[in-house]
Amino acid sequence: MDRAGIGKVCLSLPGTTLDHPFGDDHDCYKVGGKMFVMVGGEGSVSFKVSEIAYEILTETGKARPAPYLARAKWVNLPDPDAWDDEELAEHFAIAHRIIAEKLTKKARAELGL
After folding, report:
1. pTM for the whole thing?
2. Of the candidates 2, 3, 46, 86, which lies 20 to 30 Å from 24 by C-alpha distance?
């Protein structure tokens, strides 16, 4: 999946916004002001995962710990084109849900979640 495809999938999730806090070459997809997917300047993608998914993806070598965000259970894919689009879209939806669930009831209601 390329940068445009990632954007299309992420922006289709409810309450998602696109931001560029690290420069125009980094796309950060947020829900309720909190990041759940980030595309780096060179095309790699990082996203939030569950603790179990983090262990499985990093131990099997399918993903690596995301720079600066690994302690928060984020993984990084240097080449998202090597992944199946449907599988990657599912991971993005899960990342969105993980972050959205941490929002306050009021924030979720305002976003229609």
Report:
1. 0.91
2. 86
